[in-house]
């Protein structure tokens, strides 16, 4: 009882303090809110909405059940999760955070994952998308597309290794399952049963997919704006400097430049701002790549809050996901050091044809998409919210 009262006092005090800070720095809060809203409306909403809607439809029409049967022989030995984890892993990498958490929670609600399997799965499927790594960070901040290849490969390789490590989380529960063989007939049978079980008109399925997707994106937008404001307030009251001094001591022990402490601390709260500040520092590109890889791996408290909000609708615990983020930061920092020479330094010096082809296949589309979202992203967001409003009014009617 006393513990709960202390929690009540602590929560109330923090909220009152936040309210006082917002009142004290209205101009700063307004600019931070605008910056967060701009990121959400121009990039996050238009880039995630198609993936969210398609994922909802794939689940509704039973395609995820089909994928689950086909991927079972791969996902179970590698990550100790069912085959449907292959769908979450692929969609999570393609669309970015917090898609992995969103799709994992959705499959848990469909009882296609156990609690432990969902906790394993969410720990390595919540990754940054190529559009952000290559378009925003590498080209937008560093003006270096070759760096984008290094950061992307580092990020996804280290995330894969996190998944391998997390397969041993509650490892004894593996005895309950029997590994299945590849069977298209069985996969189609699962798809057919899932589609019949849905038993909804096509219009209702489409409307629910759009509505659920936009609801999730509105929550994500709120968190982006909130943490943009929190980060700026921490700077104004010099709490950021205090936290950065603690990070500076750790960086010194690791023989890393202490001037990276403030950008790293900012990145721990909000990835975009932190990565931008890292690109503005006067230090070697390898050090910048290490710090950015750590920021991307940690996901930032902003993304972690989004994940916690999504997981709160299920019985999936947040602690394994947070532990995986710490593990990811360690593996990513080591991986980028190992890959820096072969994937960046040597390639820049020699301009290998294979890497040039990879650049044209991956980097250039990401760059074009990033620039396109800057021009038409807001219109996509506006149209999406308009459709959501119509669906909401129609449901109430």
Write up what this structure looks like:
With 397 residues, the chain is mainly alpha-helical. It has one domain (25-396). The protein has 17 helices and no strands. It has helices spanning 2-24, 26-60, 63-79, 84-95, 99-109, 115-125, 130-141, 145-166, 184-198, 202-236, 239-253, 261-269, 271-279, 285-298, 300-311, 319-350, 353-396. Helix 3 (63-79) packs across helix 4 and helix 12 (261-269) runs antiparallel to helix 13. Pfam families: Gate. Keywords: Membrane, Transmembrane, Transmembrane helix. It comes from Gracilibacillus salinarum.
Helix and strand layout, with pairings?
Layout: H1 2-24, H2 26-60, H3 63-79, H4 84-95, H5 99-109, H6 115-125, H7 130-141, H8 145-166, H9 184-198, H10 202-236, H11 239-253, H12 261-269, H13 271-279, H14 285-298, H15 300-311, H16 319-350, H17 353-396
Helix pairs in contact: 2-10, 2-17, 3-4, 3-9, 4-5, 5-6, 6-8, 6-16, 7-8, 7-17, 8-14, 8-16, 10-15, 10-17, 11-12, 12-13, 13-14, 14-16
SSE order in H/E notation?
HHHHHHHHHHHHHHHHH
Tally of distinct domains: 1
How many distinct helices?
Answer: 17
Question: What radius of gyration results from the CA coordinates?
Answer: 22 Å
Mean pLDDT: 82
Distance between the termini: 44 Å
- The geometry reads as globular
Low-confidence stretches: none
Helicity level:
over 70%
Structural class: mainly alpha
Strand content: under 5%
Strands, total number: 0
Describe the sheet with the most strands: none
């Amino acid at each position: 009882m006393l513990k709960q009262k202390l929690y009540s006092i602590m929560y109330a005090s923090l909220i009152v303090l936040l309210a006082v800070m917002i009142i004290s720095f209205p101009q700063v809060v307004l600019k931070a809110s605008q910056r967060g809203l701009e990121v959400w409306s121009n990039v996050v909403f238009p880039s995630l909405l198609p993936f969210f809607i398609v994922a909802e439809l794939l689940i509704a029409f039973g395609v995820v059940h089909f994928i689950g049967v086909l991927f079972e022989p791969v996902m179970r030995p590698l990550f100790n999760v069912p085959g449907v984890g292959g769908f979450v892993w692929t969609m999570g990498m393609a669309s970015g955070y917090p898609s992995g958490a969103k799709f994992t929670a959705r499959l848990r609600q469909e009882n296609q994952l156990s609690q432990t399997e969902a906790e394993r799965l969410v720990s390595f499927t919540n990754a940054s998308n190529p559009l952000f790594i290559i378009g925003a960070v590498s080209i937008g901040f560093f003006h270096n597309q070759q760096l984008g290849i290094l950061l992307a490969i580092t990020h996804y390789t280290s995330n894969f290794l996190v998944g391998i490590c997390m397969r041993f989380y509650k490892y004894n529960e593996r005895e309950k399952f029997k590994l299945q063989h590849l069977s298209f007939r069985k996969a189609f049978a699962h798809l057919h049963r899932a589609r019949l079980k849905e038993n909804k008109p096509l219009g209702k399925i489409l409307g629910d997919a759009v509505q659920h997707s936009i609801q999730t994106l509105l929550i994500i937008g709120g968190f982006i704006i909130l943490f943009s404001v929190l980060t700026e307030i921490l700077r104004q009251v010099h709490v950021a400097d205090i936290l950065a001094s603690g990070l500076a001591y750790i960086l010194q022990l690791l023989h890393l430049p202490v001037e990276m402490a403030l950008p790293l601390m900012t990145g721990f709260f909000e990835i975009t701002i932190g990565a931008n500040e890292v690109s503005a520092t006067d230090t070697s590109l390898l050090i910048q790549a290490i710090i950015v890889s750590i920021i991307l791996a940690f996901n930032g408290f902003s993304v972690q809050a989004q994940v916690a909000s999504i997981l709160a609708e299920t019985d999936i615990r947040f602690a394994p996901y947070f532990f995986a983020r710490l593990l990811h930061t360690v593996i990513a920092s080591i991986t980028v050091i190992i890959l820096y020479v072969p994937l960046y330094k040597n390639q820049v010096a020699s301009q290998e044809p294979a890497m040039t082809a990879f650049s044209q296949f991956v980097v250039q589309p990401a760059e074009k998409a990033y620039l396109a979202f800057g021009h038409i992203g807001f219109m996509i967001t506006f149209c999406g919210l308009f459709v959501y409003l119509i669906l909401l009014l129609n449901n109430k009617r």
